[in-house]
Design a protein that fits this description.
The structure is a single chain. This protein is 66% helix and 0% strand. It is mainly α. Among the domains are: 593-696, no CATH class; 704-837; 886-1007, Leucine-rich Repeat Variant (Alpha Horseshoe), CATH 1.25.10. Helix 13 (259-275) packs parallel to helix 15 and helix 41 (888-898) packs antiparallel against helix 42 (904-921).
Length: 1008
């Protein structure tokens, strides 16, 4: 064993790696060797004249000790004496401290040895003589002793331990060491008897305040300035013994002009306020108050109307103010009830001269007092009782005074205290706020907005009659201002109703809703005010924030819809606004939808729509596709939110109605209309599609889906069967839905092969068949079927066939285009309504883009335009940039051709991808800068293409801020600045703003 031990020691001395120490530690634990044997084996190395050899030898012993949990006490004592002796040798100090730390952490370590360890460290270890890494070990040693032997220290070594800490931590500058120093100081100050050392411990820490540390770029320790600030803050908060030194010293720092320093001061004070005992805070509260009150009194509070506005502040100076406010809010929590009266009386006596409405510090004073009032009910009642009588007897003489008074009252309205002295002043407050709301000019919007907010906030202490009166006044105000959605009074009133409708829906239902709906026209007239209709319905949607209101509004809007249809109101937009409002209401609150909505709303809206759409030729909505589509969206939305258990019944009813021509519960009455989509193609297919696309794909059709699909294919192949494109699109979408949800790949392949055999590419009669094939292929693409690739290839092969070259890009676009009926149900992830795979688009683009690039390079000149058209069409459907990023370099030459196109839609899809290219890999465009910038400038002058102008300016902006070398941008600087002058007078503000930004960027290039 001695030979093995010698080999391990030799190995460690040569490499200083851990494995030998692990083997030695294992042998010690298994008692194959003793630590004394190890020391003996290391013998000559431990006393070698070469410092490195001595240090390595001690390191071997220390690293071995660190891997052992238990030794007998005799061995520990011997080794402890060995290490204490080694403290005289500065060359081995780091490993000696590591060894002592390992020794003191052993389970059998005798705490009686700590006195000699600590005394020796104090006498023999001089921190200034060592690098940061060695000093770090001294902190770790003290930390381990504190954690393992705290009780013994408290009983026997309190003063010595504190002295040693002060000795090793004084003048420390390394951030890693400071973190552990602050942590130790906090623990010592909060747990040991430090009365005799409080000043030294405080000075030891305060010399680092405020922390101005910035971590070096490649620091291995990941220490941020915030970590040091937080650690230091916790030291000051550790014991109230620091208060006498902390408060006067730290408050001096408030005179700093740096917001960061002031914020650090205030966050420290707030932490101390939380942790110091009440007696200490009572002793120093006046000092704190006198130092901090000016941070409020000298602050401009222009944007603060209620206390909640303070939380919205975000600038660096604002953060300082917020921290002051937090301190004043917490300060009274430390007062007893007797102290509250005494302390507040001192403050009020000083501040009373500021409590006049016209005083320049009036608003700040009221804010300060109201913030303190939020601390607890006793403080609130005392301040309210002292301040509100003064405010309510001070008569405002100007509008500014009225604003100040309304704001001051709002500061004190606190729903957290429903039973408080505020109730005694309720009537007077109502008079002031109602007067400000009703009597001031509409030009003076700020006062009205303040009064609106204050009245809503006050509602918690109003009785039913008073609440009704307030809401009635607000309802009238809402109606009088809703013509201008940007009117601040309208916005404030609308926000008020958002809150009111959630908390008091009954009052809104009885007061506001009838008033709003009474403004909707009931009779047919060529002079229906559509703007009024839109505004009223917009308000109705925005104030509906409860199930009670939602239920009632849906019923009433459907009633208006029916009344208009019966009255033959001819204004089509009116119907659309009504249906869209119902859709928005249901969209905004899907969690409120239930089977009850399906049973009530779907039959009513289905019956009304079908009767008027298909049967009543005199109906204003007869054959109106827009109305039918909007009704379908409402139905789909409701079904998507229903529990799975109801889906099969809804699907069966829809099949009965639309495929089998029989009555079903989908209608509130018998229509006398036999619908059969598979024999006659009425436009109602759009409605059936909404039912079919919404229900779970696990719900089977009650009739054979393959038979239905076959019939639909035969009908749809011939466009002569349809009265409109809307009808034909409905059938194509239905074919895709059925194929995607119910038909196997083998059956679809059979149908596609049969269709392809009938195609004559030289005949226009085959275009209908090609379109049907594209929609069936789309169903395969959505599900990521292996079969999809075969038919993608087929459609791709048509690009260079002259007779179908003009339509083949559009057929390929069908495969990837978004269709609302083919959207996955995102409202309930438990219900899967379609076979749509997550990455189907990525797969499509990864296959198609390389083929388009290759085809473009190799095709005849006549076909190049076809490939560019295809690329521009499919790029319109890229909504996740990650899909396209890997292909940018290869498609860039084609993009440069697309932006030259005269087709605005194609050009804009190219510009969007160009912008993405510049943003993600700008170096790709360097060789093409001249042609790109010339084209972009030309597009900015084309006033017929607003989107093109915006996209071109965005590209120019992105080029200007990109990493393209300035030397390559400078030649274009003057041209861009000069040629965008005309865009500054564009009628659209967004374009003018972009043009100004672009010019500024290129102007600044000269100074770069």
């Amino acid at each position: 064993m001695d030979l093995q031990l010698s080999q391990w020691v030799s190995q460690f001395m040569a490499s200083e790696n851990d494995p030998p120490c692990e083997e030695i530690a294992k042998a010690v634990i298994e008692k194959r060797i003793s630590l004394l044997q190890l020391i003996k084996t290391l013998g000559s190395h431990l006393t070698d004249e070469t410092p490195h050899i001595r240090s390595t030898a001690v390191g071997c012993l220390s690293n071995t000790l660190a891997k052992i949990e238990r030794l007998n006490r005799a061995d520990i004592e011997v080794i402890a004496k060995f290490y204490i002796g080694k403290l005289d040798d500065n060359d081995v100090m780091s490993n000696t401290l590591v060894g002592l730390r390992a020794l003191t952490s052993l389970k059998n370590f005798n705490p009686a040895l700590l006195e000699s360890v600590l005394t020796s460290v104090q006498e023999k270890y001089e921190p200034a003589s060592f690098l940061a890494a060695t000093r770090y070990q001294s902190f770790l040693l003290l930390e381990t002793i504190y954690q393992k032997h705290l009780d013994f220290i408290l009983a026997n070594l309190n003063d010595l331990f504190v002295k040693v800490f002060i000795h090793i931590s004084t003048n420390e500058k390394d951030p890693r060491n400071l973190l552990i120093s602050f942590s130790l100081n906090k623990q010592i100050s909060s747990t040991l008897q430090v009365e005799n050392f409080a000043e030294d411990l405080f000075d030891n820490a305060f010399c680092y305040f405020p922390v101005s540390f910035k971590p070096p770029p490649n620091s291995p320790y990941s220490i941020a300035s915030h970590d040091l600030k937080t650690g230091l803050r916790q030291v000051f908060a550790a014991t109230p013994l620091f208060a006498k030194d902390l408060f006067p010293n730290i408050l001096e720092k408030l005179t700093s002009t740096s917001p960061a320093v002031k914020l650090d001061v205030l966050q420290t004070l707030n932490l101390c306020l939380d942790t110091y005992d009440n007696d200490t805070i009572q002793e120093y509260w006046l000092t704190l108050y006198n130092a901090l009150k000016f941070e409020v009194l000298y602050n401009d509070l222009a944007n603060i109307v209620e206390l909640a506005d303070i939380e919205k502040l975000s600038t660096e100076d604002d953060l300082v103010f917020k921290e002051v406010i937090a301190l004043f809010k917490n300060l009274p929590k430390k007062f007893t009830d007797e102290q509250i009266i005494k302390n507040l009386q001192i403050m009020l006596e000083e501040l009373k001269e500021y409590l006049h409405i016209s005083h320049k510090y009036f608003k700040q004073t009221v804010l300060l007092l109201s913030v303190m009032a939020t601390s607890k009910l006793s403080v609130y009642n005392h301040i309210v009782g002292e301040v509100l009588p003064v405010l309510l007897t001070d008569e405002p003489s100007t509008v500014v005074d009225e604003k100040n008074l309304a704001t001051a009252l709002n500061f004190f309205i606190n729903p957290d205290y429903p039973e408080s002295k505020l109730s005694q002043y309720k009537d007077d407050i109502l008079v002031v706020l109602s007067k400000g709301l009703m009597s001031s000019s509409n030009v003076e919007t700020t006062l009205k907005c303040i009064c609106i907010r204050s009245l809503v906030n006050l509602s918690f202490i109003l009785d039913t009659q008073e609440v009704a009166s307030v809401i009635s006044n607000l309802s009238e105000l809402l109606l009088s201002t809703m013509k201008n959605e940007k009117d601040p009074i309208f916005q404030e009133t609308l926000n008020a109703f958002t809150n009111i409708s959630a908390t008091m829906p009954n009052v809104v239902l009885e007061t506001t809703l009838p008033l709003l709906l009474s403004k909707l026209p009931n009779e047919s007239s060529s002079e229906i005010d559509l703007e009024l209709v839109r505004n009223v319905l917009n308000v109705v949607v925005n104030i509906s924030h409860s199930k009670l209101l939602l239920d009632s509004i849906i019923v009433r809007l459907l009633s208006v819809y029916e009344r208009l249809l019966n009255g033959r109101v001819v204004t089509m937009d009116y119907y659309y606004f009504l249906l869209n409002s119902i859709y928005l209401l249901l969209s905004n609150y899907p969690e409120l939808l239930s089977k009850d909505y399906a049973d009530r709303v779907i039959p009513q809206i289905t019956s009304l729509t079908i009767v008027n759409y298909r049967l009543s030729k005199e109906s204003p909505v007869y054959l109106n596709e827009r109305i039918l589509d909007q009704c379908g969206k409402i139905i789909r939305l409701i079904i998507c939110k229903l529990e799975l258990i109801h889906h099969q019944k809804i699907l069966d009813d829809a099949v009965d109605t639309f495929l089998l021509g029989s009555d079903s519960p989908l209608f509130s009455t018998s229509l006398g209309l036999e619908i059969s989509l598979v024999s006659k193609p009425p436009t109602l297919v759009s409605l059936f599609n909404k039912f079919l696309s919404a229900v779970s794909k696990d719900c089977p059709l009650k009739i054979e889906p393959l038979d239905v699909l076959s019939s639909l294919v035969e009908i749809t192949r011939d466009s002569k069967h349809f009265e409109s494109l809307f009808e034909r699109m409905g059938f194509l979408e239905l074919i895709c839905l059925l194929a995607n949800k119910y038909i196997s790949d083998s059956d679809l392949e059979k149908i596609l092969n049969e269709l392809s055999e009938t195609i004559d590419l030289q005949s226009s009669d085959s275009l209908g068949t090609l379109e049907v094939m594209a929609w069936i292929t789309k169903s395969l693409v959505l599900s990521n079927s292996p079969l999809a690739m075969k038919y993608q290839e087929y459609f791709f092969s048509l690009l260079e066939i002259p007779s179908v070259a003009s339509v083949s890009p559009k057929l390929l676009e069908v495969l990837i285009a978004e269709v609302s009926e083919l959207e996955v149900n995102k409202r309930d992830k438990k219900i899967i309504n379609l076979n749509v795979r997550l990455l189907y688009k990525q797969k499509f683009y990864n296959i198609m883009l390389p083929k388009i690039i290759e085809g473009y390079r190799n095709c005849e000149q006549a076909s190049k335009e076809t490939y560019l058209l295809l690329l521009s069409l499919i790029l319109n459907h890229v909504h996740q940039r990650e899909i396209i990023l890997s292909h940018l370099e290869n498609i860039l030459p084609l993009i440069l051709q697309i932006i030259q196109s005269d087709n605005a839609k194609s050009r804009n899809s190219g510009l969007e991808i160009l912008n993405l290219t510049i943003e993600s890999n700008c170096m790709l465009i360097k060789p093409h800068l001249h042609s790109i910038i010339s084209r972009l400038l030309a597009i900015t002058k084309d006033n017929s293409d607003l989107n093109g102008q915006i996209n071109a300016l965005l590209c120019l902006k992105e080029i200007g801020i990109s990493k393209i070398p300035l030397s390559q941008l400078q030649p274009f600087r003057t041209t861009i600045i000069n040629q965008t002058v005309a865009v500054l007078s564009h009628k659209k503000r967004k374009v003018r703003k972009l043009a100004a930004d672009v010019r500024q960027i290129y102007y600044e290039l000269e100074q770069s």
